[in-house]
């Protein structure tokens, strides 16, 4: 059974509620409801005289969007039909009830009714109706975030990349519509497919299906198609903007190309929304007109950087919407329109999520906004619609929280919203918003102790929803930092501050607040990885004892959490002692210091005498406060679980001015994105087989030139010599098809990749350079390796020795850290930047040589390889290799044992 979670709805509340809630169910619910014969999307008046008045009364309530009243009438009519054994009319009423529950966002209940309807029409062999019901069921699953299941009902297509002929499998909604020559059913299925693929973030496929629907001339659906096409192009434009940002540093020409594509998609969205507005006005459909106006207003805020829509025109659209609002009959959608309009930011405000962030410069005056909020509450209460009432109350509470700073009424309204979402609706998608809001209000009112339980409740609710909301809808990936991440960070900050207040003398910290903070921080790491990889992310927590309780006694962990005004560092010792330290620098100051350190390592590579000043500063901030505990516990290995831009720090190169040593000279070092996902099983790889993938030739990918890696052949040969029965795919032989064949035909526990690897802000811009000027994306690599890991053979180590991450872009390093986890590989050895020098071959050779020695962990093997470069003295050329540029970028990720 589907989960009790309307994923799609949550995102809409956080941006523009009303306009997008229309798109999912529009395909079968946008037509008139008074037609006496059964037709797609039409709530049909029953023929039984005893129940006819009840059915018609429900139809009139539905048309007014008084959905609770409609349900009450139809449930009474349904009992009459059941008693009279009038199964046909009972099926019709069940359809009506299913659609109405979908309108209310109660998709589980809707699915229960659809199952009954589908069983009945299947028994009657009414295949046209069965096909149409499949489409409606698919819409419900899309609303629940289960887009794969929705697509299976609509098309059952097995390959999303090969849909040119829009061919669907037998028994799917689209195939049935084509076989029955049911044009309305075909449009509905195509439109619903478009929406499902849009939610999955596959905008190219979504647009193909929507354009196919648009080619079928049907006036009834013109408005719906135009709106969906506008939303798909707007979402794709947002993706192009993100890709442009990702490519800006490493491939400026590609960034310009992406920006142009974003501009084109924004223009397409504008044209579709303008056409939908014209269509609504021609049909004199006020509700649709409001949807189109709000679509245009939202598009303005999304495209301000390219001046797509003139501010004067947007101002006209806002005034038109405000005037139209009073002409609309009371309905659920009118409630959400009021909340949207009241929350509009000023034209130049950078706010992205008005319902979770505070408006610094609102578009409407406070008095007008408050009036809209109060109207929305009154309408929701009159309609007895608990969901919309919860949002209206919460929105007004947010108004008092931010714009009037009146915390008592803000708290009271938010508490009412919580009660409605929790007790009456069990709607966790909205519940976490109001729990989080309650925590913020109490904290702003200097009631931190009282605030903590509400942050904890919001966190607990979010944890139950996390997989759905982070992998099901690409739009959530765009807004993650506004609507998901702050819950974790604000909770962790309160927990750590509580831990600090309980231990002002900085003695051993064992209190529950610090342990709880570590759990919160670890959950944030999982959420970030899932957010990065999106709808293809499959992560499974290791079902072992706590990692910190099963490793060697000489290993310690340092976990970090970056907050706005300071950064928390938590040391976990083998005996489970925990120590907390703060870096009392604001986020931007610390970020700048780390960027200076990072760029100094790269740019200073030709300096014989490396300036260690930046490395010394970071050592003092991160390591020195814990030095006594590390020495007292005879720690030999440090494992870092880093946050945000701290992931970019090559920790090995931190410098202890007092001892005149780099950190790697004192400890073996590893990093892991999440302890919860880290396997601690130690594998003997002495008899392992290695697959070596190498490209030494110059390559051109996406108009970007990747220089030849002249030292790669010697590196590849050195790896091959370390392991018997190994295989090498080099240059033209390294293709995706050859790699796939090799992995399927033989078991390799080590895969060593010596080629350019780019890690960008998003997975689409993360790839390995293969032979013949081609590329292997991170998702393709994940698919290949996961297929191997799901069988009896497991890849123990993935080595990527020519990676390039973007300076200052912590999301690119997140991709580097997450690739092994996503692919099901236990460990990775990778580089933060590419070192085109023979030193890499020397380091790799030493690493594998030491790794094959009994009792040596991966972290220790890398430490010894790095120390060999640091201590090289044979020739003047070798002396250069002791510069950290040559050895510092190499890191162990995941299982360091």
UniProtKB/TrEMBL annotation:
<keyword id="KW-0472">Membrane</keyword>
<dbReference type="InterPro" id="IPR024983">
    <property type="entry name" value="CHAT_dom"/>
</dbReference>
<dbReference type="Pfam" id="PF12770">
    <property type="entry name" value="CHAT"/>
</dbReference>
<keyword id="KW-0812">Transmembrane</keyword>
<keyword id="KW-0802">TPR repeat</keyword>
<feature type="domain" description="CHAT">
    <location>
        <begin position="613"/>
        <end position="895"/>
    </location>
</feature>
<protein>
    <submittedName>
        <fullName>CHAT domain-containing protein</fullName>
    </submittedName>
</protein>
<feature type="transmembrane region" description="Helical">
    <location>
        <begin position="12"/>
        <end position="29"/>
    </location>
</feature>
<dbReference type="Pfam" id="PF13176">
    <property type="entry name" value="TPR_7"/>
</dbReference>
<dbReference type="Pfam" id="PF14938">
    <property type="entry name" value="SNAP"/>
</dbReference>
<feature type="repeat" description="TPR">
    <location>
        <begin position="187"/>
        <end position="220"/>
    </location>
</feature>
<dbReference type="InterPro" id="IPR019734">
    <property type="entry name" value="TPR_rpt"/>
</dbReference>
<keyword id="KW-1133">Transmembrane helix</keyword>
<dbReference type="InterPro" id="IPR011990">
    <property type="entry name" value="TPR-like_helical_dom_sf"/>
</dbReference>
